[in-house]
Design goal:
Elements lengths: L1 E5 L2 E9 L5 E8 L2 H18 L12 H15 L4 H19 L9 H14 L1 H20 L26 H13 L14 H12 L3 H5 L6 E2 L6 E4 L2 E3 L7 E3 L9 E4 L2 H13 L19 H14 L7 H16 L1 H8 L4 H7 L10 H6 L4 H5 L11
Antiparallel strand pairs: 1-2, 2-3, 4-5, 5-8, 6-7
Helix pairs in contact: 2-3, 3-5, 4-5, 6-10, 7-9, 7-11, 11-12, 12-13
């Protein structure tokens, strides 16, 4: 550090190596030698904190500081959807931080992470999976910044997903759901505005398209053709809710494979005709919307569906149940390939494992084929090459 006098004031200066490796001159002025030196030290300290987050990450950095740098890095990269970024932050703060907030990076070992994930898995597989994802991403950043030599998360035990059995709705159950949706809040003397019957139409469209709830709510006038033969619907977007922003339509669905145009049955086409008559004439007009013209949110529709079904004593039905029902019905009649294409899956395995209900009865043709092994068949004279021939 060099200190010199410039008229009535003192100037302290030094060369500082910035986070990019370059040396730069930094100066500070004061009324005395000590004041100039003190101001220069404060500037150097502030420069160290604000420039180059990688410089402040070491093995002794607290995990909470890493989380701050990690979230900033996510924003800097901008590679993930804002809704995913918000989910990562929520999972980190609610699931992971309470267990690691008082630890330094060097104290986050494989054993400590492994025990944490197993404790989370005892509560739920989903909780453990979400924790593992965000913890792995944050500690991966610490590795890239040379704060720790390796990421402990990949070395932990594999999470075991509980085996789930897809179940489809029966025709009787679908009839009950339709009746419950139609009757919900239809009685006289109930407080609040009368229902606009959008819930019933949403159910019909989900059953006729296999679309996710957000994709159904994102349908616009320009996405449907109910005059064609057959009528069709184009799945090209979804409804998203981002932190601090109004609900909006995203111009692409969940995945690229989800972007598709499907033929729909008559009951779904009729529901869409009713919605076309109820909304504005603009090509971009959403078919499902609030009374103020804003998009309906998937969570609000889920709540309405749950409320309507509870009144009718029906439990355990979610919008995804309609999607599984479509997959199971198509698989039984036309095979898994058509079911996967309808659902917008890039892999038949996803459709088969998570969406198609497995039949209790193996193909009954087995009984006819195995008749050849019956006693009468075995007792008759055998020709060369037949069972029982010598």
């Amino acid at each position: 550090m060099a200190v010199s006098r410039a008229g009535a004031r003192w100037v302290a200066s030094t060369r500082y190596r910035d986070w990019d490796g370059r040396l730069r001159k930094v100066e500070a002025v004061g009324d005395s030698r000590e004041a100039a030196q003190r101001t220069l030290k404060e500037r150097l300290a502030a420069r160290s904190e604000t420039e180059g987050s990688a410089e402040i990450l070491t093995a002794d950095t607290r995990f909470t500081e890493l989380v701050t740098v990690w979230l900033e890095d996510l924003d800097l990269e901008g590679r993930i959807a804002s809704s995913t970024r918000d989910l990562y932050e929520r999972d980190m703060r609610t699931l992971v931080l309470p267990a690691f907030e008082h630890l330094t990076l060097r104290e986050i070992t494989v054993g400590r992470v492994d025990r944490f994930l197993k404790q989370q898995a005892r509560l739920s597989y989903s909780r453990a999976k979400h924790s593992k994802v965000v913890l792995g991403l944050a500690l991966g950043l610490a590795v890239r910044y040379d704060a720790i030599p390796r990421n402990p998360v990949p070395a932990t035990a594999r999470l075991r997903r509980p085996k789930s059995v897809p179940t489809a709705l029966t025709i009787e159950q679908i009839r009950g759901i339709r009746e419950a949706a139609a009757a919900w809040r239809a009685g006289e003397g109930l407080p609040g505005p009368k229902p606009d019957r959008q819930l019933s139409a949403i159910i019909e469209v989900m059953l006729g398209t296999s679309a996710r709830i957000g994709e159904v709510l994102a349908l616009r006038r320009c996405d449907v053709d109910v005059a064609g033969s057959p009528p069709t619907v184009r799945i090209s977007g979804t409804i998203v809710t981002r932190k601090g922003q109004p609900v909006q339509r995203q111009d692409h669905p969940k995945t690229e494979a989800s972007r598709r145009r499907v033929a729909i049955p008559s009951f779904a086409a009729e529901a869409l005709r009713q919605r076309l008559a109820a909304v504005g004439s603009g090509e971009e007009e959403l078919l499902f919307q609030t009374r103020n013209g804003t998009p309906l949110t998937p969570n609000n529709v889920r709540r309405q569906l749950r409320a309507a079904l509870e009144v009718a004593g029906i439990e355990g039905v979610t919008p995804h149940a309609f999607r599984r029902t479509v997959a199971t019905t198509l698989n039984r009649e036309a095979g898994v390939e058509l079911a996967a294409a309808m659902l917008g899956h890039s892999s038949y395995a996803i459709t088969e494992e998570h969406y198609i209900e497995k039949p209790d009865l193996v193909d009954p043709r087995t009984a006819e084929v195995l008749e050849v092994l019956g006693p009468r068949e075995l007792m008759r004279p055998s020709g060369p090459g037949e069972i029982g021939a010598t």
